[in-house]
Amino acid sequence: MNKDLEYYLSLPYKMVITPDIEEGGYTVSCPDLPGCLTCVENINDVFTMFDDAKRCWLEAALEEGIEIKEPLSEENYSGQFKLRMPKSLHKTLAEHSKEEGISMNQYCLYLLTKNDAIHHISN
């Protein structure tokens, strides 16, 4: 398949909208396309400006021969991974999950989700 501009424009790239507290308005970026960002004053302009920034970024990348990453979908992930840990941590997690009345798997998922949310808020 010939991966041209229209192909890349049809892909579901993630858009991140960040309010600009100091200047007002918003910064809109695309994590999968490093350096692809735009600024808007009005939230209603986000989609138009993002599409324009994405188009310009992709055109430049194609002209310069820069590798263009395709967005990852959830289909790329199974929802499972194997984790090795010290026996002492395993014991502690098992005890805490029993105290909470949930499986260790549910307890670890809760801890990971909570920590991930805290990590993203602080960044």
Per-chain topology:
Blueprint: H1 5-9, E1 16-19, E2 26-29, E3 37-40, H2 46-64, H3 87-100, H4 104-122
Antiparallel strand pairs: 1-2, 2-3
Main sheet? 3 strands, antiparallel
What CATH architecture of the largest domain would you give? Answer: 2-Layer Sandwich
Task: Write the element-wise H/E pattern from the N-terminal end onward.
Answer: HEEEHHH
- The residue-averaged pLDDT reads 88
Helix content: 40-55%
Q: How does the helix and strand content classify structurally?
A: mainly alpha
CATH topology (level 3) name of the largest domain = Double Stranded RNA Binding Domain
Distance between the termini: 39 Å
Keywords:
Arc Repressor Mutant; 4 helices; 10% strand; 46% helix; Double Stranded RNA Binding Domain; 123 residues; single chain; mainly alpha
How would you portray this structure in words?
The structure is a single chain. By secondary structure, this protein is mainly alpha-helical. It has 2 domains: 5-64, Double Stranded RNA Binding Domain (2-Layer Sandwich); 78-122, Arc Repressor Mutant (Orthogonal Bundle). It has helices at 5-9, 46-64, 87-100, 104-122, and strands at residues 16-19, 26-29, 37-40. A hairpin with a 6-residue loop joins strand 1 and strand 2. Helix 3 (87-100) packs across helix 4.
